[in-house]
Amino acid sequence: MKKSFILLSAIVLGLFSSCSDDDSADSAESSLMGSWQLTAEYDNGEPYELDNCELEETIIFKSDGVYEFVDYDPAEGNENECVVDDDSSTGTWSIPSSGKLSISEGSIVIVTDYSISGNQLTITFEEEYDGETWTSKSVYKKK
């Protein structure tokens, strides 16, 4: 009887510990899934002025690991109307580790920092060019 109790306890403990790891990975992915609309951008900490169409930019993270990036430009002849731009794209996404987002489009793979606070997603890119580090931050609101 004592051996059965110990074996059952070990199995239950193993189930709980394996579920908690899966839950945290699932939780990070599920909090990222959905549509996010651009609200602000920063270059090296300085705010970048966005026009109405740039503020329509949307990233959609789907549960199957696919993302859609929808970019907008002013309509020809009507600057107040925004239309989907040719720069819109589709690719895959994953979370390789905590706070890291991997985005792939064809052979291009970018791993960047991200954070979610409430309904706000912040994606930060760092690039080095000519010996200087350039930082770009994009802030999105969940739709």
Feature tags:
143 residues, eight-stranded antiparallel β-barrel, disordered N terminus, single chain, alpha+beta, two-stranded antiparallel sheet, globular
Please provide a written account of the structure.
The chain is α+β, with helices and mostly antiparallel strands and 143 residues long. 22% of the residues lie in helices and 55% in strands. Strand 10 and strand 11 form a beta hairpin. The strands form two sheets. An eight-stranded antiparallel β-barrel has the order 1-3-4-7-8-9-10-11. Strands 5-6 form a two-stranded antiparallel sheet. The protein has one helix at 2-32; strands at residues 34-43, 46-48, 58-61, 66-70, 72-75, 78-84, 89-97, 100-105, 108-117, 120-129, 132-142.
